[in-house]
Amino acid sequence: MTVLLDGGLDWRSIARVGKGEALHVSENAYERIDRASQILDAIVAVGVRAYGINTGVGALSDTVVDRTTQGKLSRGIVLSHACGIGPHLDAPEVRAIIAAQIANFAHGYSGVRREIVANLSTFLERDCIPIVPSRGSAGYLTHNAHTALVLIGEGQARMGGRLLSGREALAEMSLEPLVLGAKEGLSLVNGTSCATGLSCMALNRAAHLLDWADAIAALTLEAVGGQMDAFNESVLALRPSKGIAEVGASLRTRLQGSGLIAAAHGKRTQDALSLRAVPQAHGAARDVFEISASIVNRELASVTDNPALMGTVEQPLIASQAHAVAPALGQAADSLAIAIAQIAAMSERRVDRLVNPLVSGLPPFLASDAGTQSGFMIAQYTAAALVGDNRRLAAPASTDGGLTSGLQEDFLAHPTAAANKLLAVLDNAEYIFAIEWMAAVQAHDFLSDLGDRAAGTNALHRMLREHVLPYSDDRPLAMDIEGVRALLREKEPL
């Protein structure tokens, strides 16, 4: 499969490229790229002072660079900005960043040559993954610089499971190291493609997890005999929310025909909030997701290179602006991280209700021989620890602030940090929901004589039991958790 870049891309398209699809840049897009490159040539020829073209960058923006050294400036920007640290980004995240950067160039306001875009597209086609450290970016510069290194024959990349130098990777693709021209170094490190690409992958994972969250919650509701009256369509409509309505419909559909739910009807006046408020919490997360996704799509539709090249070859214009700063993008990632952290915390509370003999009505800790076995006792500890991690990660990055570049950059929005935190929250949430899924299935194993499961929940029970046997303290539970988390990430809920 190939994603076509002509007029623009949305987050789903970027995520598809991240997961392995190639990106085809149309001739219309290349014509826009060529036009901006021609405008850049005209600006260079005129010699009017222009940021990052014939001046330094950041606090050095008033330092003029003569025409003979503008290419040297571009190369130096890439080398000096490649100072990321820490663990490397995964291949899908790097691919998404490259795709978002190509989309930004394709708007036709950056001035890079088509060769740069063509080579980046070849990286995606041949699955050449530049080594990009995950940490060290207050905005976007360091991540993008590490990708740009490979274009000029520096840095490192992975291809076919091998770690290669940048020059070796280019040779593998029959490409030569590029000699950068005026502004191209700045364009390669500039813009919000890093945070945007990471956010696209986070949205893809979040959409998948939200579907699983509803499905797993339904399995738990059935195991504890949840009271379905709270989920009636007319009742939920009292709080207008697309998300609440979607979650309520999902729960009703999945639990339709449940003998266990029918047998428990009227057993309690109302359920605990971790059960009764599933539509409200999961629905809120879905509503936040929709807002965050719209902000990411708006970012992909935006020109985020500074400066932007406008006008015509005859009358070239250059606009120094702040579109490379992305407060909305950081706030979107922060908001979604909070929403995911909250529903994961609710999941852990449901795990506790399944394993806690004071409220479950089930064998203590879901152990088949309580006392000699601990069952899921410590799995709930693990979920609680991950909830604590998420609580810390949910602190917003977009309010961190900071000062860089000799007071020239005295406002920082931290969108990349926010996107990285969101990905970390999703990691933890996937584990928490995997633990709930395992615990709910184990609980159902004790309920087989009390009534039939709904078809929708029986499918979830069967899927897990095809991969994981009932637990009786006969193996390390960590292995099961890892396997179920992988299953959750790879499969759609039946």
From TrEMBL:
It comes from the Bacteria. InterPro entries: Aromatic_Lyase (IPR001106), Fumarase/histidase_N (IPR024083), L-Aspartase-like (IPR008948). GO terms for molecular function: ammonia-lyase activity. This is Histidine ammonia-lyase. Keywords: Lyase.
